[in-house]
Amino acid sequence: MSHIWVWLEQFQGKVPSIVWETMGVARQLADTLGTGVTAVWIGGAIADQAEAAIAMGADVVQVIEHPALADFRFEPYLAVLTCLAKESAPSAILMGSTARGRELAGGLAAELGTATLVDVMEIAIEDGRIVAIRPIYEGKLFARTYVERSPAILTIRGRAFPRPDPDPGRKGEIRRVSVELDPSVFSTEVLDWIQETEGEISLNEARIVVGGGRGVGGPEGFETLRELARALGAALGATRAVVDAGWIPYKYQVGQTGKTISPDLYIACGVSGAIQHLSGLRGVKVIVAINKDPEAPIFKAARYGVVDDLFKIVPALTAELRRRGLAKG
Ligand SMILES: Cc1cc2nc3c(=O)[nH]c(=O)nc-3n(C[C@H](O)[C@H](O)[C@H](O)COP(=O)(O)OP(=O)(O)OC[C@H]3O[C@@H](n4cnc5c(N)ncnc54)[C@H](O)[C@@H]3O)c2cc1C
Fold this sequence. Notes:
By secondary structure, the protein is α/β, with parallel strands linked by helices. The chain has 2 domains: 182 residues, Rossmann fold; 116 residues, Rossmann fold. The protein is built from 9 helices and 15 strands. A 7-stranded parallel β-sheet has the order 5-9-4-1-2-3-10, with helices on both faces. The chain has a 5-stranded parallel β-sheet with strand order 12-11-13-14-15. The chain starts with a strand and ends in a 6-residue tail after the last helix. 42% of the residues are buried. Bound molecules: flavin-adenine dinucleotide. Flavin-adenine dinucleotide binds next to helix 6, helix 7, strand 14 and helix 9.
């Protein structure tokens, strides 16, 4: 059986954690199927990321280095991956379920005449086939699905699988590959990157998220949650109601029309627990709800609940973390 591929998504030469989690999945699948893992780097200089990919589980790293490919652009990246995949016919192609991963996976499936399964949360081998378990209908149901055609293209949900420990002693092969690209694929140009906020923990990678809803009362109410988030080393999240009200930007929105998150802990403060919000929380391990209304639906989804005013509970929690010397910031 041919190798399982992992696309090494990168931003300015750095590989996000979700890619290494995906590598762990690929390694396990390859070991079960008796094949190997090829990591594919498309970008500027790879620096030490090829060794990192081998330490994380790759047997082969295909390196397509070119200054024109330094920044992600859908068309040239798709052209490179399509060309390589047509040549080598991998048995499956895995990538992180990021915005870019999902975009590329769809394009690749169309180019290769196969199908893509996005947001995979569990995976198994049954009768020699890769069977993926993934949420459908906004997370109300989980589907067990496999792709009949080859290669199966899967995007792996962040924090759904463990990040493997690197093994610096692992051996692998680094292959530099050159690909002829038609200039017409460079139909866009990246002029600049604008970082929105510095030093904030990303919602997608956070282990703890403090979420705020209409119960925070206004934009200034989020300061109380920010304090707790800082103390916990957590990311901030929000409901659509408060985003629509303009209390906090859209990038914080969790739910059906926002982000899907998978932290270990979600502290919902003044959040009613509407189905559209809960659909973004399917991967959360433990939900703690703080709400004045004992009938709020969030308590049905929560493992622990506090029926009280969030402006009493949240500052008390932050103060207690500080008093015990547990506050991170
Ligand atoms: C097509 C569609 C897509 C949607 N997508 C999303 C989505 O992606 N994400 C999302 O979140 N929503 C989404 N919604 C909106 C969703 O239906 C709810 O309207 C929204 O989630 C409610 O937000 P909320 O919990 O902040 O507000 P509310 O429902 O108004 O709840 C506020 C809660 O705060 C509590 N409270 C008030 N004051 C306090 C206090 N001082 N202390 C403690 N508790 C207090 C109240 O008891 C109440 O339970 C969508 C809706 C539609 C129709």
